[in-house]
């Protein structure tokens, strides 16, 4: 009971703007990090929910590197979520998945940021929750219109591909979202800047090229998907990137054949 009260006291310090949030987050991260000297915390559900709620609201949508203390805290908060996901996976990860359906775009964005982080850092997440995230992403790629959100979805998909969480043809259709947005053109009346559009293009192109060059386990599926894209009108604006990626894939494939023992 003392531990629960102490954690709640720590969380209350975030309400004091004079205190550097990074140090509070560091302390929480240490408490949540199990070790021989620091066994797993026995926290009640109310405290677990409080931690998740408070930390969730501290995640930055766009870290400002001109304010390094806020960036440091952002990444320390993500580290806290690593520990929460490993120690209290059901309540922590399920609440994040639920936030992906929030009516507010900013809340959905925060959830995607954290879940994408967990994709790369938490084996518990990959083993037990990644498929739920994939299912949610299938809905989100069809529904989300915001360019910043589209960028986050691209990063989430790439992370899942890297962790071999996207393998079946049905799941691999998520990669089509990246291909399509390489040539994204906003609606005529859309209130978006050219820089935002260019940023989305660059994110999609670099992500696709990176996957083609580094994720050897899915090269065959990527090649088939990109070859199909050559014949689909919806991908016409992305043909430059598709061609670039196919060239890279075929070159890599040739190199692999040349290097293999005869």
Could you please describe the fold and organization of this structure?
With 262 residues, the chain is mainly alpha-helical. It folds into two domains: 1-128; 141-262, no CATH class. The chain has helices spanning 2-12, 21-32, 45-58, 68-87, 89-99, 105-121, 123-128, 130-143, 147-162, 169-172, 174-181, 194-214, 219-229, 239-259. The radius of gyration is 21 Å and the shape is elongated. The N and C termini lie far apart (67 Å). The relative contact order is 0.07. Mean pLDDT is 90; it is low at 255-262.
Q: Estimate what percentage of residues fall within beta strands.
A: under 5%
The number of helical segments is 14
Shape: elongated
Tally of structural domains: 2
Biggest sheet details: none
Structural class call reads mainly alpha
Low-confidence stretches: 255-262
Radius of gyration computed on alpha carbons: 21 Å
Tell me roughly what share of residues is in helical segments.
over 70%
- Please write the string of helix (H) and strand (E) elements: HHHHHHHHHHHHHH
Mean pLDDT: 90
Number of strands: 0
Report the span from N to C terminus. 67 Å
Set out the fold topology.
Blueprint lengths: L1 H11 L8 H12 L12 H14 L9 H20 L1 H11 L5 H17 L1 H6 L1 H14 L3 H16 L6 H4 L1 H8 L12 H21 L4 H11 L9 H21 L3
Protein name: MROH2B-like HEAT-repeats domain-containing protein
Organism: Sarcinodes aequilinearia
InterPro entries: HEAT_MROH2B-like
Quick overview:
With 262 residues, the chain is mainly α. The protein contains 14 helices and no strands.
């Amino acid at each position: 009971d003392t531990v629960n009260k102490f954690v709640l006291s720590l969380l209350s310090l975030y309400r004091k703007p004079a205190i550097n949030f990074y140090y509070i987050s560091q302390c929480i991260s240490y408490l949540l990090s199990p070790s021989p000297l620091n066994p797993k915390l026995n926290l009640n559900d109310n405290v677990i929910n409080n931690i998740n709620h408070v930390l969730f609201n501290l995640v930055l949508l766009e870290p400002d590197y001109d304010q390094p203390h806020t960036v440091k805290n952002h990444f320390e908060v993500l580290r806290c979520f690593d520990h929460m996901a490993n120690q209290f996976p059901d309540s922590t990860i399920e609440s994040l998945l639920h936030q992906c359906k929030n009516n507010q775009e900013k809340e959905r964005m925060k959830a995607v940021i954290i879940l994408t982080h967990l994709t790369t850092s938490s084996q518990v997440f990959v083993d037990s929750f990644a498929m739920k995230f994939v299912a949610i992403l299938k809905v989100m790629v069809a529904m989300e219109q915001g360019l910043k959100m589209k960028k986050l979805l691209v990063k989430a998909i790439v992370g899942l591909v890297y962790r071999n969480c996207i393998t079946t043809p049905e799941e691999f259709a998520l990669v089509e979202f990246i291909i399509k947005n390489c040539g994204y053109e906003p609606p005529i009346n859309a209130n978006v800047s050219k820089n935002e559009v260019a940023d989305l293009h660059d994110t999609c192109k670099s992500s696709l090229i990176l996957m083609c060059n580094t994720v050897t386990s899915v090269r065959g599926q990527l090649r088939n998907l990109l070859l199909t894209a050559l014949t689909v009108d919806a991908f016409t604006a992305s043909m430059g990137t598709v061609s670039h990626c196919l060239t890279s894939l075929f070159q890599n494939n040739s190199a692999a054949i040349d290097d293999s023992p005869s």
